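so ive been stuck on this for like two days lol. basically i have the seq below and the ligand is adenosine-5'-diphosphate, smiles is in there too. i just want the complex predicted, nothing fancy, no docking runs or whatever. if the output looks off dont worry ill sanity check it later, just need somthing to start from for the group meeting slides
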Amino acid sequence: MNQTKIITAASELGRNVLEHGLGGDVHIERVQRQEKIGLRMTFTDSGPGIENVNLALTDGYTSKNGLGLGLTGSKRLMDEFELTSIPGQGTTVSVTKWK
Amino acid sequence: MDRIPILKLGDKLLVTIQVDFHDRVALALQEDLTEKILSAGAKGVLIDISALEMVDSFMGRVLGNIAKASRLLDCETVLVGMQPAIAITITELGIALQGIHTALNAEGGMALLERLIKAKSNRGRTANASKIAGRPPNLQRG
Ligand SMILES: Nc1ncnc2c1ncn2[C@@H]1O[C@H](COP(=O)(O)OP(=O)(O)O)[C@@H](O)[C@H]1O
Ligand SMILES: [Mg+2]
């Protein structure tokens, strides 16, 4: 179950890197916090960045012709979600799923 | 370019989606299917997605568009074989897949298509009958 959620979130965020971020990197790591272990995926690009993060994090908002569910959906599928974006410089989205 | 084969079975079309459902393959299927519906005069399409390990919002949109376009061509779409983990995941993702009929397996899907096609031709007949009787079709319901 977790696996399906993780690969779906990876597909959404990877798609964003390619579609909106003009290409970038993904970094996958095993993380540990106290007794918990988990998987963290970090997607980084140096594309146009996101002007209005709140808007981008609204269900159904898309600046192209997507469904606008990639960011909000990934946030729901994963346990932790962190987005940092600097307009003109790029975007980093980091998501974690605990076992 | 890789394309997904579309099999004709009477008045229905059968599509089995393979594991490598890349974006271009998905878009090609959307195109091929609408053409085939017209050329074959198909009344129903069965799409088997049991080989898929994931459905993201792009694939969800393509499947939704296929169903919508088919409907405009007077053809019903039934999606079969969705893995439970995918059902839960796409619900959480927020994909509605509205207007798409589903069945657990190909057999159930075929039976559902049969019923949908039959119900539609019956409705058509009732509507015509009421036209002759000079009454609007919606008064016939209930
Ligand atoms: N890596 C990124 N770089 C720039 N903008 C992005 C990035 N990821 C998302 N966005 C912006 O956030 C919006 C919402 O993203 P998302 O929820 O994935 O929906 P969609 O991709 O369907 O448009 C995008 O339309 C885009 O404007
Ligand atoms: Mg997206």
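Helices of chain A lie at 2-19, 53-56, 70-77. The longest strand of chain A covers residues 24-33.
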